[in-house]
Amino acid sequence: FATFNQTANYFSLATKAGYVVYSISPRLEKFHEDNGGCGRSVVEMFQDTALIGLIGTGEDFSVSQRKVFLFNMQSEEVICSFSYPTAVIALKFSEERLVFVMENEIHIHDSEKLSEKPVVLQTPNNPNGICAHARQLVAYPCPHPDKAEKGTVAIYDCKNQETYCRSITGHAEPIAALALNSRGDLLATVSTRGTTIRVFSLPDGKEEFAFRRGSYPAEITSLSFNQDSSLLCVCSEKPTVHIFSLVKTDPKNESYFAGYIPAVLSTVWDDHPRIRIPDAAKSIATISSNNREVYVITQEGNFYVYDLELVRAGNCDTPTTRESIRISEFLTDSV
Fold first, then answer.
1. pTM
2. Largest CA distance in the chain
């Protein structure tokens, strides 16, 4: 399991022996490492701070998946811990809140009042812990049991403790990945089919974009907005990273023939920059906070940096930086 932090300045790797945190800029450096033998399934950083959330692999009681530790990497002390009757599958952190995702519940903690009881959301079965969190919003799959379309998402307002807007249905198949932008006014969704990514504005739920990743189904491994919400970065089990623009074309600059393209086709557009990575393995990717680089981590244990300007100019297959993180044999199964 690998994940970038919220600012894309660090990434963390959960390993069977512990975990590793790297800082990315100005060069890749190991920030903190714990290889004491306590396997980790989830490692989530709290912004750019030394605070980190840890979940075990469940191989024995000492690394239970039902327990979450908040750990200070600088002082090397456990700040606090939380125990649950069922496994915690995912963690989502923001400056204001810590979100713990279980198969049928989401627990939302105020980051300044961790000793108080959390807000608890009852959710439909969510075995993969799919959830997105930004600002005061939490988004999660919420398919209606009586409807054929299973790709429905519910949005919860943590600040006011109420439903934020109507549920949004964008796919016939179940949801595979979600992302909220940093402002909390855009939601990206993709289904288990993995061919089409849709972007909705919030709170009105209007579909703003629909992008075609490919014609063949694929497992989506990462979905993220850049910091200014002008780009969407998508990875799958295929060795390709997709970059989609979220800037709408001025109608004055459109081709004469654009008016003859059926509306259903004009929104699903296949012309976008791609990065073909050298590893034939699952990957995750994100765009740097300064919008100059694309960072990619592969399950084979490689870290790549690509020049975003070159990527946007055409298909870019040559990274500007390649680093082996040298622990691929210790990585847990999922990216």
1. 0.90
2. 66
